Amino acid sequence: MPDRYAMNQTRTFLLFALLAVAYLLFQQWEQDYGPHPPASAAATTQSSSGEPGAAPVIANGNASAGTAQLITVSTDVLRLTIDTRGGSIVRSELLQYPVTPRTKKDPNPAPIRLLDDGSTDYFTAQSGLVSADGAAPDHRAIFQAAQTSYELTAGQDALNVDLSWADASGMKVTKRYTLHRGSYAIELDQQIDNGSGKTWDGQAYRQLQRADRPAAVYSNFLQRISDQSRYGFFGAVWYSPEDKFKKLDFSDFAKPKEQPPTSQITGGWVGMMQNYFLGAWIPNAKEADSFSTTVINEETGKSHYVIRSVGPQISVAPGQHASSAAQLYIGPKLTDQLGAIAPGLDLTVDYGMLKIFAEPLHWTLAQLEKLTGNWGVAIILLVLLINLATFKLTNAQFQSANKMRKLKPRIDALKERYGDDRQKMQQAMMELYKKEKVNPAAGCFPMLITIPIFYGLYYVLRDSVELRQAPFFGWIHDLSAADPYFVLPVLYTIVMLAQQWMMPVQPGMDPAQQKMMKFMPLMFAVIFLFFPSGLVLYYAVNGICRLLQQWWMMRRADAVPAKAAA
Predict the structure, then answer these.
(1) Terminus-to-terminus CA distance in the chain, angstroms?
(2) What is the band of 60 on the pLDDT scale with cuts at 50, 70, 90?
């Protein structure tokens, strides 16, 4: 028993390392060998042209003849491409989020393209109207536009883009997109004017259609395994007040039990999510919609996945008009903004089971970044705050370790006395610990704080778009990516070795465990090569703080006997 207690700190460190290694291996296995969407889904209910067929209400849409054109719409944060076929948004460039970090050599890298009608990363936002017995423009109908380019000018806070459609019966539909300065939320209003001689009945729908995650190309193994974006969720999401936030991987689109509820949902939304970014249709908060998913098998054999929101029945008498409004969010997952747009939209910043740790860490880091203007400095300040908060707890750990170090000669004497009689040896050690008021398990308590912080901060760095490409100083241009020159992992390894040198091997440790302890710094060095540099920065600074505290405690403990002897 005492041997086991004396080894608590060592085994906790080993558990920490094994958990980290196991997590990396699991993520890599999921990426390489986990379930992937089938090339041809049995649940397919649409043709390669994209004609909706999953919901009967959309089954009668008719494609219009004519030539479509592309319209460019620019604001201070977005550059959109709208196809007049269907009035769909087929491309969106996030002007403030470059693909690669800005450097002196490349100060203006290309912006992230979230929506894209290209074949490799197909992702579009579509909308339309359907009617069982009347004319209605769906997402394949040809619309007309007054111009091919729109731009939000200086001093202008909002920009309207109108697309119009009409048929011979007198039915007219105008799609109006409204974009606002500094906003990634786009308003869509579908205005229906009934110039025919009979009542028009139909429904409005909005849907997102995208292909599966394209295969990433890496120049080397380190770049591949350190790319944290590979491990974030990629698929469909939705929210309803009853069921809250739900996710649906593309591989589960054919599973009936995994689908969103088809009942009328008021105050919900549907979306497609990936690491850092989100596309979501948000119906009017008072409108009752039904949600559904389906799969389109392209002629090339590649599947497209659709999540759709269908609105309630709309009736428009002759000579009257009606409208259907919704919002489309295309942009970064900024927690403070998403929550204000729609309930539950902020849940797309998905920290999973570690939300209880990750959210407070993110909030604290955000406040510190506001003070310093640098996320790396904010991480360092977070280390100092946590060390101040746990100062007494850490002191207790070092005091216990120091007492154990001083007891080593007496424990060695007990080993010689009792030899191979482990039961008597353990009893004698327990009595010695009790007499000297030593708690061998004291070293475990700081680790109970360290492990949740490790994983919580890992998810913050992986999933918080604010930390994407956040520079620190010098060679670190992206705190969410691995250290390109391995400086921080090496620094942390040196700190761990210094801690081992200052604190000799604990008494009662067998030779195998001693060897494991010697290899632990190297083990952590290898693990930290692949982690975000912001996380390694945290642990390097934390290790330095603990090393200084350990040195101070040992010097203070050694000074007391020397002073008493004098």
Answers:
(1) 39
(2) very low
Residues 6+ apart with CB under 8 A from 441: 5, 8
Q: Which of 282, 285, 288, 293 is nearest to 311 (CA)?
A: 288
Outline where DSSP puts E strands in 158-256.
158-166, 171-180, 185-194, 200-211, 235-240, 244-249
- State residue 54's pLDDT score: 38
> Other CB atoms closer than 10 Å to residue 65's CB: what's the count?
7
User: What confidence category does residue 261 fall into, taking pLDDT thresholds of 50, 70 and 90?
Assistant: confident
Number of CB atoms found within 10 A of residue 224's CB? 15
Q: Both tokens of residue 343?
A: 């309930």
Whether this prediction's pTM lies above 0.85 is answered by no
Domain with CATH 2.70.98.90 in the chain: 52-99+108-212+232-350
The maximal CA–CA distance of the chain, rounded, in angstroms, is: 110
Question: Which strand (E) or helix (H) includes residue 315?
Answer: strand 314-316
Q: Are 448 and 429 in contact (CB under 8 A)?
A: no
CATH of domain 52-99+108-212+232-350: 2.70.98.90
Element (H, E) at 294: strand 288-297
- Per-residue pLDDT tens for 63-107? 555 688 999 999 999 999 999 999 999 999 999 999 988 878 888
User: Considering only 40-49, 216-225, 291-300, 454-463, which range has the smallest mean pLDDT?
Assistant: 40-49
At 203, list the tokens. 């429904």
- Assign 3-class secondary structure to 87-153: CEEEEEEEEEEECCCCCCCCCCCCEEECCECCCCCCEEEEEEEECCCCCCCCCCCECEECCCEEECC
**Tokens 């300040």 correspond to what residue?**
381
Q: Which residues contact 510 (CB under 8 A, 6 or more apart)?
A: 3
